[in-house]
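Budget justification note: compute hours in this period were largely spent on complex prediction jobs such as the one shown. Inputs:
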Amino acid sequence: MKATLSNAFRQMRRYPSAVVGSIIILFLVFMAIYAVVAIPYSEAVRLWRGADNVWMETPRNAAPAWFNLFYREKQPVTIVMRTTDESSPKTIVDLGDGVATSDFVFEFDYEYDGFPTEMSVFFNATYTAARPNVALKWITPDGREIQIADVSVRTNENYSISQDTRVTRRLGGVVPERGLFADPANPNKVLKGTYKLVGEGLVFEEGSSVDASMVIYGKLHGLAGTDHRRRDITIALLWGTPVALAFGLVAAVGSSIATMFLGAASVWFGGWIDWLIRRINEVVMILPLLPILIMVGLFYSRSIWVMLSIVILLGIFGSGILSYRAMFLQVRESGYIDAARAYGAGSGRIIFRYMIPKIIPTLIPGFVTQVPAFVFLEATLSVLGLGDPVLPTWGKLLNDAQGNGALLNGYFYWVLEPAFLLMLAGLGFAMLGFALDRIFNPRLRGI
Amino acid sequence: MQNIETAQGQSTVKRQRRMSSLNRVLKYVLVRGLTLLVTVTIGVYLAILIANGGGYVDEMRKGQIRESISIQMAGNPENAFLTLQERRELEESMVNTQIQQLGLHRPFAVRSFEYLWNGLTLDLGRADYLLSDSGSRQVRAILGERLGPTLILMATGQLILFFSSLALGLVLSRRYGSFLDKLIIALAPTSSAPAWFYGMFFILIFSAVLGWLPFGGMVGAPPPQSTFWRIMSTLKHMILPIAALVLSRLFSGAYSRRTFFLIYSSEDYVEMAKAKGLNDREIERRYVLRPTLPTIITSFMLTIIGLWTGAIVFETVFNWPGIGRLTQQAINMFDTPVIVATTVIYAYLLAATIFLLDIIYALVDPRVKIGGGGRS
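Corresponding output:
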């Protein structure tokens, strides 16, 4: 056994597809470990649910930031500035009677060729009765001053500059995120330089304060971009890896090992056991796997582990049993089985010690080639909207992308990133499996 | 004189043999058909058990009764004089009577067999939300409309796939070790992705970027007036799905066919035939293709089962108005009767495919004709 395996490893090096496949699988395994370590399970679920406004400061449907490397016209990434940061602190002047000014200036360089997608200012105030007041003013690089708004600040105030029609009117009917950045000489071009958002605040009570943060949403974000709910796709890409690997490996290994035992039992005991196993196999072949998973998903649970158990259960009696049966039929006729019988070995001993070890070399390529099918099955379920309700997976990204017309609207990255990883996982296991099949299967050797 | 007699004798023997082999084939097909019918019955029964685990089939029936009774009552002018309270009570008692009449109060074990019969005859009641194009709520009417497009698409794709992978496999086994051979072996792992996955890329390239072919659907909008152009439009819409279907399985299919051919062409009887001086085509047809066909049909059967399973997403991606797209719509609308019905239909389609291949199998496998045991 051991000799066969180490021999197989030596042979693997001669097959380029085995080497490439192994490298891909190793890469995915590292990615999975990184994902689980860097973002704990509960954190991943919380982030993907998007509760507590965790995605307030990311743009909607933004492409990956590295796209700028290929653009001649550089697109903006999101600019976030806060009064709580040291770079743009508040200046507070006490005017007596509890009244105080609380001013801030957000100063930033805008060197992109594209306009931002949205602009918002978020306020955070403490007060008991009288709300603080903040007047916002925009100063362009060429020194123009544009009044934006007077905001009466509640405890949590979200002021969206983009949606303020008064600003639009003041800019002559141009939406603020274009009008505020446009070059007066050429309204279709961005005026590059240092912009300032000046906030002049007034608080009317002792101990009252106001903090602000400005978000200028860009067109690009992070490694992988964002989706329609402003979530960073990187999280789903990362966490999809352990989910896909676990689903594929557990389903493939679980079902093929169980199938192998059943095949062995079927051949060794024969009679009614063999008959029963073959009839069950015939029924399972007729059962449409996906519709059954759909019914389970709709009526019982969408948890990925429930789906996994059903896949294994149906897989055990699937088509594989026939090929194992055929192999065991040959093994049963071997001389050493007769010898074992002659020294009085029991059925269990013969099956576990003599029949199964003989088959294991063919089992390995078998389950390696099965892994991609299960990885894609998980994606298929997710694409149908039956993905795990809480976990971010590759399939769920595809489902979201499809549901929001990613291809029609040109958000190709949204489809291509999960698709690329799915393809990578599929190819990795398939390449390794095909090579192993040729190594372990003597009839294929040299062909 | 004697010669003629022997000749006649031989021809009767031949005829008898042909008759008996025809009988055997028929018997084999009949037995397989009956077995499949039994397995379909068990499969549908299992599907009903799963669906009813949450009590959904019962809910479905009771909802139907309530709906029909309330419609009946609303249409009866006598009821206009009743108060709301009285009306509710009357409705409730009528519903209960009906439930008693239909035997819904009986234990599930008894009723499940009734459901089984309804399931097998596809009498699955009325859809909750979905309508057929003709406006009917009957699940059977809805399924009937969708079956055609699914069959057209899948049958065309599967036929093209079968013959192209067989032909490619033959070409590769002839040019064993050539660049093309190595290329296909290298491409074989790409078949691990399902057809809808390739479909997505095809739509991206040919529809979104290049704009050559439609994004999905079965005919252009608005549908052309003349039948000829309608067929042409459907054919145009079929290009991408069929290409995706064939491409997703072609390379691994061709690879495994080629490997079979190579294994079988190293058999002794092939060497013998070569030694006899038969030409290559003859050897291929009689000594390589013939004995491998049963195995190839079996492996193709597994491929087709995989394709049927993927049909739901496949049709969804291409917006093809078939059973798969219907399933997806039913999932989104939570239309239980339709979901159960599509599961049953898929069981039937799988069984029909297997049955069809069994018949072909019986025709090509000499063991069936001469009676040397079936497949196993």
